[in-house]
Amino acid sequence: MPPGPKTGPALFLGLELATDQLRASIVDESLELVGVECVDFDTELPEFQTQGGIFTTPGDAYTTPVDMWVKALDFLLEKLSRNHDVTRIKSIGGCAQHAVVWWKSTPIPSFPALDPRLPFHSQLPTNTFSLPNTPIAQDTSAHTHALALEALLGGPDLMAARVGTCANASLLAAQLLRVRESWTSDVWSRTGKIQLASQFMASMIMGEWVNMGEAEACATGMWVHTGPGAQGASGLGRWDEGVLEIVGGNREEGRRIRTWLGDVEIAGGRKAAHISRYLCERYGFESDTIVTPFTSDYLSAYLSLCPSPGDAVLSFGPMDTLLTPAQHYLPTRLYSLFPHPAQDACEKRRYIAMLTSRNADVPRALVRDMYTKSWSAFDRLVAIVPPGGSIGLDDKLFSFWLLQGDSYPLSHVKGIYRFETGIKVNEFRDLRANPRCLLESQVLSFRFRWSRMIATGVLGSNINRSRGNVAQTPSPPTPQGQSSRSNIASSLGLSFDPYDYSTLPTRILVTGAAANFPSVANLAGDVFNAPVFMPSTQVDSAQVVPHRNAPATGFPGRASLGGAYFARWIWGKERSSAVGGSSAGRGLGGFEEEIRRLHGKRWVASSATPLRTNVNAPAGGNGGSGANSGTSTPYGHRSGLGSTVFVEEDEEEVEEMERSGGTLSSSFFVGGFADRDLGRDISRMRTLTGSTLDSVTSGGSLGAPSSAFTTPDPNASAGSPGGGVAGVVVPSTTTLTPVTAMPTSDAEAQIGLAKVAEADVDAFMTYAAIVPEYCRLEGMLCKSLV
User: Count of CB atoms within 10 A of residue 649's CB?
Assistant: First the structure.
């Protein structure tokens, strides 16, 4: 569309360097979405020959070309200047995936001077970067180096106490150690500076070298945070010289790494600089445009949701994460802890606790390919299989898909493990239990680790179910109060009472492609006994493309929205300070408080009109090529196993059962069960799901299987359209029916959240009974007893 008039309300730009796209979201002063742009790496930059924005090789290596980012930034800025009035953009925020940029050492006293007549990529020499293809967050090739560093520091407990985190493959310290020990010496010797991807993006926008934020420094494994009492003054944190020496191999190289890293910006609640002259002259930005500190994509997405104390942000993706507000700095091996990236120096220090799992999209995609034909069939199986994969109380099924090196306590465990009646088996007797058991294992892991995290006191003492506007049924009383709960926990061999949900999250805020599956959203609500909310932008995007982590065309990425919100907050503080002499004037408070105030003000002024979720987005339909169908993994090609497991007759039997509310035949599951045995009524799900709707009606127009929902088998013959084994008849796949919004209170609706699943105390109690056995089996894996 043509640029608008050169005068008008202020706009705020958020940038997001994701794995597969470079995205931009523009909001106005009331945080209403007014513009969305993106550059898709695979389709718009085909010369780099990436798949999902990355290169994958056999093993654990996942890399991406830095030159591609530079060229994508040129393309994105060109789109922004062509389609929007950039003179109205008053502030720019942003974020990036976790990756490292290795600059060459010749010579870089300051950021390179740029000619506004030429794009970025034509002015950076081909030898600008000493490591042209850099590892990204999914890369686990440095896992053994992370474990070695942890051992040298005395183990996970001592390492966490020292640098705030224990071993994981994404640590910058582990990546540096791997490059020094495993790569050719010229990569190390030619390096003159290293930047995290977020610093790199900010430097390109500002035209000068940008310091790392403390939230990201705490994730490097080399930064010492001072903890409680910090007020944002300089010198409160430091690089650990001992760790730097270990990584560098000697003291001299450790000092060299220190110069590569530069200083750390402690206070994130202020502007970093103004936009570069190059961008003003080439694209038309105003010279007084503020640029805010950039941060990690997962922290920026967290900011966009404005979570309250007691909320849990559960993000499904290549790595699953659970983030929650924390009041204290109490580092342990159980979780990662970051200073809040949006806080003033005068504020009481706030933190964000994070639990992670690397075994996320990769196992989900592999199970889909092995046991079903599509995400639609995957979702239906999860919905109809009973909790624990069995109707019995003492014969539950458990599975652990640990395909990549993970963090504590599973840092030394790899493989696929299945258990029936507590005994390790190579495969379940009924293969159809695999999808549900995988998802249960992934969500139960977060539930178990949440309870252990609560016990440390890091989240504070006011985390309970009586907060906010979320009505909750009180915990069932016990005869002797807390002592009784302790006795229950001890009798079960646990450190917490699995039946007590008073300390569990009040709300679950979900993002990521897997959350679009109604069965997954319901499962999260059941395990935590909490209502599940999803950003309305994702709910609407899922109606167009339900199976991709990337948003549909015209819909904003949550991390880019977080950057735009942060830019709006900083601009308001700067303007208030200039007018009244204090950034605390004019009602401005902390980040979440101010964002909620702006949302509430817009809600009242617009007569309770929901936030706009897209700009010129398609109404619906096929999601495109599906190159990034929920994951970017080396398991992209279908194995063909699904064709032999889930054949046409079985699928038709499931659909017939769903339409009629009748029973499944005894041949469907070992032993057979009816809908009454599932502990719920199949015909009454808590959200409209693909399991309760006849998805064949939407799939009838698809004809041949669409690559949007399945990935073709390169070895399949032309006569096998479903990608199955020759001689097996495979029906056409059907479209996944995603979650839809349920009635949502104004408190959530005005900040752009929609309820997608309700809490169910009966289902919670079913999972509470499973938790002790799950914990026992996980403990056996950690101790290498199986």
Answer: 11
Give the C-alpha separation, 386 to 672, whole Å.
12
* 8 A C-beta contact, residue 401 and residue 367: yes
Report the C-alpha gap between 208 and 202 in whole angstroms. 8
Residues 6 or more apart in contact with residue 262 via CB below 8 angstroms = 193, 209, 211, 212
Profile the chain (786 residues) by mean pLDDT over runs of 10 residues. 62 97 97 97 95 79 92 97 96 96 72 83 86 91 93 94 91 94 86 94 93 93 75 65 95 95 85 90 95 96 95 96 95 93 85 94 94 92 92 87 87 92 93 96 95 92 51 46 59 81 95 95 96 97 89 96 96 80 55 95 95 84 35 37 39 47 36 33 36 33 30 33 32 72 95 96 94 92 87
Sign for the CA dihedral angle at 456, 462, 468, 473 comes to: positive
Q: What is the distance between the alpha carbons of residues 588 and 241, in angstroms, rounded to a whole number?
A: 39
Going by their DSSP bridges, the two strands 532-535 and 507-511 should be labelled as parallel
**What is the number of H-type helices and E-type strands within the chain?**
25, 26
Q: Name every residue whose Cβ is closer than 8 Å to that of residue 638 and which is 6 or more positions away in sequence.
A: 369, 710, 711, 712, 713, 716, 723
Comparing C-alpha atoms, which of 90, 124, 87 is closest to residue 108?
A: 124
* Greatest Cα-to-Cα distance within the chain, rounded to the nearest angstrom: 77
CA distances to 130, 203, 243, 366, 591 from 347, rounded to whole Å, are 40, 27, 30, 46, 11
Report H helices in 164-196: 172-182, 185-190
Alpha-carbon Rg for the chain in angstroms: 26
What is the DSSP pairing of strand 89-96 with strand 11-17? parallel
- The phi and psi torsions of 510 (rounded to 5 degrees) equal -110, 145
